[in-house]
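Moderator note: this is an archived Q&A kept for reference. The question asked for a predicted structure of one protein chain; the sequence and the answer are reproduced below.
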Amino acid sequence: METVALADLRLKLDGNGLIPAVVQQYDTGEVLMVAWMSEESLRLTFETGTTWFWSRSRQELWNKGATSGNMQQVRRVLVDCDADTLVVEVDSPGPACHTGHRSCFYRELRSE
């Protein structure tokens, strides 16, 4: 695995200065959630070792689990080949979804 410093990489942010982040449980690969990160939330994530995101609905930074106590401890952050999507591998002690489910992806979609 290649390692690159954040300062040496130009992330491709969208028109709102955001990048999508897929959050996975580090040891199982389970996809827990997808959220948006800004440069500031990514910086805070590295500084604190816990996940920080940008809430598009509330227009504010939020530290995942700060209210519920289910803080996600960051193990590593991966960036894709185009530098326009992140994967954040975490140790998530409890539910990652605001509904109380372990993952935000708890519903299977079918054609009818």
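Archived answer notes: Residues 16-91 form a domain with the Ubiquitin-like (UB roll) fold (CATH 3.10.20.810).
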